[in-house]
């Protein structure tokens, strides 16, 4: 319930006259003059200034609360993944706001009169990154004990919840002292009672969306601004901003240990050389090292190497974008640790009438870079290769730490906008179906955060890829999903609507007798020509196709074909359209949870937790 503005609705009381004051015309006149002087001092401008200050503090408090909520879920993403960290996040936030709003009077009664609740806000905010760090590392790791579904709830219940509840209680207190909107425009009482709560929630949600946009790191931003946009640094900046709405107090000294810990000992503080050194000290005993890391537009991106086994991976939040062996020389290409990326290269082996015979005359569009396994192979074959990658950090790391050759065309932007613009340039006045296409091969390989970007699997996007593919062209689409859930069925239905002739292959065979989750990487090969799956055939690879690679000897030719019975969901699938993505999105959480478990088996928990 919103706080009652009882003081604002009561009639002003007449000050009591002390017993020892005699009531006389002179004293009555003095009292009238005193009241008149007070009324004269209470000018409209002064009252308006007081109201503006009160509402300004309310807006600032709600903005800081919204920024804290965004920073919290971002800080949990490297340990849990963006989707698992968000499953119960809104519930925790709403519960904290309701608790603070409804119990502000009780909270104030628990504190001494000379210790207003607002004075504790900077302290609560300063300890959020420290407590989150301790709950993600050491013998008690919330992610290890509670898993990806409940771990974020435990962490935010102990960090974000108290901060938001206290902030909202201060908001309620400020609104109690301000003149309500119903007093100004004379609204009915029941509307006036609801307005503070509705208005506060609206301001909070607006600030939540604005601070989420403001937190996106821009490569062109000044270094200080970019650093303050990183996860732990942004939490420290929010704690400092809370000081502007809290009365100065010696209580702030209690925040110093938390700040010193964040600056000197928190290994999650991106951009700090001593923090990276701290991370590597913690990983040294397990044979791992972080070579480089960066906050970017798709999440926390880092290059991690296993020194004992001799391989290197590219990480984004709680998922791996690819990896390659470092103990084998690149001759002429590196040996990847994942066979699925080699399977994508089999687009060159599909038999299609009129297909280009000479690789030097072929062109390829790669959507989603990863570490560049497939693009590097296409370039090695002499194919003109264009790579579309939304994250500049991924392209930088693939070029610097992996074997991505420089002789390719890099397009660093969203693939949806790029392909739509390319189709429009090609088609002119023609429809997309009338475009002959400009690419012999298209490789569609996008995955991050434990799920596929929905916009890149809609009917409209796939139709653009169809338009960009030559009549004799071949497309390979990598999709990672759970065969027990509906999204993979919906994606396949959408792909087959655009490309009728397709064959699907898993990276590994399905585990016999398994009835639980069946999370797997699959590659779908399709052509413009043909109306049946049987029209998709592969030629026998030649020695030159293997690029002197042992991994390609085993994985280049797809082996584990998917049949209709492998799709175990009984729900009827719908085509994924731009304005109808609910079916694909509704199971993203379960798919991301399954992916989290797979990632914890591939890389030890400590590597994920120390960042």
TrEMBL record:
Regions that span the bilayer: 58-80, 86-105, 117-135
Gene3D superfamilies tied to this protein: Vaccinia Virus protein VP39
Domain of life: Eukaryota
Region (Disordered): 1-25
Keyword terms: Membrane, Polyamine biosynthesis, Transmembrane, Transmembrane helix
Entries under Pfam families matching the protein: Spermine_synth (PF01564)
Name this protein carries in UniProt: Spermine/spermidine synthase
Lineage of producing organism: Eukaryota, Fungi, Dikarya, Ascomycota, Pezizomycotina
